[in-house]
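Subject: for your reference before the review

Hello V.,

The reviewers asked for a structural picture of the protein, and I figured it would be easier to keep everything in one thread rather than splitting it across files. Below is the amino acid sequence we used in the manuscript, unchanged from the supplementary table.
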Amino acid sequence: MEKIDWALPDYIVNCLRLEENLETNCARVKKSQYHIRLEERQKMCFHHGLRERQFLNMFVSLEK
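And here is what came back from the structure prediction:
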């Protein structure tokens, strides 16, 4: 039986390395206040099963 070499082609290895570098570099970027608020709002909408507009209307009705 012949031994099969399962090495990945160079371009795939380079792509994988590039993705790893992008992920680590993106993690180092400080998030803006807008980005943080947007993520929190999206989490709340997801957890409560609401759309963005429904979520906004809920707070508008609470102010009245």
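For the response letter, the relevant points are probably these. The CA atoms of residues 32 and 38 lie 10 Å apart. The chain has three helices and no strands.

Happy to draft the paragraph if you're swamped.

O.
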